[in-house]
Amino acid sequence: MVKGVDGDTDTSSEYRLFNTFLPFDIVVKIISHLDQDNCLKCMEVCRAWYRMIPEYSYNVWSRININPLNHQHLVHNNRWRRLLGNHVKHVEISDFQAEQEFYDTMQKLVEFNCTGIEHLEISPCHSTKRNYKQFLSLLKQLLSQDGQNTTHQQQLIICCSHPCKLPILHIILEACPQVQKFSFTLLDSILQEEDDDDNTTLDPRLSLAPIPSHRLTNLTYLNINIRTIKQQSILIPLLQRSPHLEFLFFGGPLSLIDITIFSAWFPKLVYLEINSDKVRIYDSNRYLLQRRILNNNDHDDRPKEKGLRYFCAPQEEDEGFGPAQIGPLLKQHANTLEYIGLGAYYDATQTWAPVFQDLKLTQLHTLHCDGILFDDKSMRTLICEATSLQCLAIQGDYKIHLNLTKLLKSCLQLKKLIFTQGMLSFDEDKAQEEDPTNNMIPSSLSPEEHLFQYLDLNGSQLSDISLQNVNGINDEFMRTITHLSTLKSLDIVLGRDNVCTDDGLFECILKLQGTTIQVLDIYGIRHLSPPMCDAIANLKFLKSFTSGWYDEAQVVDGPALIKMVEKSESLTHIQLNHITVTGIEIDNQDRDVNHENLLGICLTRQLNGFTVTSLDFSGYYNIYIAKN
């Protein structure tokens, strides 16, 4: 019988286990796949394992999270001492409420030689005014890179739990000059506390203050979240001392900052986000482009002109931050901007039309407009000059009218169009009526069919269309959009005022059989009938289908739904919202198993290779069908 670490049994048998019964490299491989809890348990087996586990589990312990639940183990357990060291590169210290425990944790990490940390996240940070010197001393030691060869950027993230901590930012960065990425957030309770006490009136010319001589030359990434003007006045000198900033995320009031001066302060700036949570458009293009720029993963190896590439901000009219302030910055970087996200959190009164008419954004890839005001002509002027534009997303709040014919004909390279809560029309103008391509299209066609045939004949790249709660969508629109041979994804959320019928939607689905459609979301089908289910099953390339209805539950024919899933050769995901299902009998034996997922259990039993999850909302269901 093998005794524990403190037993008297000879350890030669344990060594034979490693060296005889299993090849040594296999043992090392096994250890490298243990998680942290299992490493700690294995070290209790015997002396040999106690010595060997830490030596070959460096990769397992390169990332740790210290919190009140495991704090006592860190302080009192010798196994932790053996497992930690300068191989620990990613540390999160989280959820401590007791100040002394917080400092004990930092002290123990220093004692265990966890220095040279590349990513340190502290939330919340208990650095009070009376002990910040101790905090800085421990912080310097944890981030020290003395004697270490590393090419990784150091990142420091602090969520502060005490008020009036902005002045310490300068001291932290001076104490840790090697930090290249720094994030600082004041917690919500502190924001409210400072808002209540802050009656400070500050000089609006702070943006012109002289730049301090001591510069933070390594800082390239700064993420600051504040809420008061008083904090902003302290932040400005920090910005002025960071000439090598490339990425700036800023949350808070902007009344003291003239953003056009950023080009002088940060000549290397490529990424600027200001209160981006108020731009409500969530689009995969935005996040893909965001990650590509942040990670510097450009597929295009051609040299790029230096300048801002990503800009996202809402207008804050009550703070004097609107088109007149943002427009000059966009014009400064018109030759380099690839993404622009503009929003208006409250009802906007200032129009962007003059700014749009004066911009030539030759590198622009994606444009998101959330609740801002502009007119149809100014938007066409902008996208006509944006010859690289691939994604246009507009959240209209029912204030925006778009002439879809004029818009899409002026931007044939556009691949993705998102339009929410607006109005559509399809009127031609004289210049477009004289286009020679029009002679190839019968004049008797409806404006909608004329548009989509024109786009297809002229090489339009439009493959992804999302129209949600947009007035102007009818049966003719749904029938004729199928002329787009490039269409891969169609997302239609019909508003209550739309005049689409189930017959019109059925005809649309039938005509989509001649396309390579992969994603089809139609929210507005009243009855998912057997013919409609069969038409969906015949879409050879369709991978995902979503449907639902508004006030009354959508009626779904259960047997037809089962046949649709079984017949389709490509469907992997189906989501049906706010529905009732007919023709499906739920077995009495299932009623005692899981009341909320009764329908899901029944359908899963009948669908081989699929899993069905259902939620019962007092008479109607949401169901999700996924291929195993």
Walk me through this protein's architecture.
The chain has 628 residues and is α/β, with parallel strands linked by helices. It contains 25 helices and 24 strands. The strands form two sheets. The protein has a 22-stranded mixed β-sheet that branches. β16, α20 and β17 (489-493) form a beta-alpha-beta unit. The longest helix is centred in the N-terminal third of the chain and has 13 residues, at 99-111. The two termini are 45 Å apart. Residues 1-11 and 189-212 have low confidence and may be disordered.
Produce the secondary structure layout:
Layout lengths: L11 H10 L2 H9 L3 H7 L4 H9 L7 E4 L4 H6 L1 H6 L6 E5 L4 H13 L7 E7 L6 H12 L11 E6 L7 H8 L5 E6 L1 H10 L23 E5 L3 H12 L6 E5 L10 H4 L5 E4 L9 H11 L15 E6 L7 H10 L6 E6 L8 H5 L8 E5 L5 H10 L5 E5 L5 E3 H6 L6 E5 L2 E3 L4 H4 L13 H11 L6 E5 L6 H6 L8 E5 L8 H10 L7 E5 L3 E2 L1 H8 L6 E5 L5 E4 H10 L5 E10 L5 H4 L6 H9 L3 E8 L2 E8 L1
Parallel strand pairs: 1-2, 2-3, 3-4, 4-5, 5-6, 6-7, 7-8, 8-9, 9-10, 10-11, 11-12, 12-14, 13-15, 14-16, 16-17, 17-18, 18-20, 19-21, 20-22, 21-22
Antiparallel strand pairs: 22-24, 23-24
Tell me briefly what this model is:
This protein has 628 residues and is α/β, with parallel strands linked by helices.
**How many distinct beta strands?**
24
Radius of gyration: 30 Å
Could you report the average pLDDT, rounded to the nearest whole number? 81
Structural class: alpha/beta
Q: Largest sheet at a glance?
A: 22 strands, mixed
Characterize the overall form.
globular
Notable traits:
628 residues; alpha/beta; 22-stranded mixed beta sheet; 33% helix; 20% strand; globular; disordered N terminus
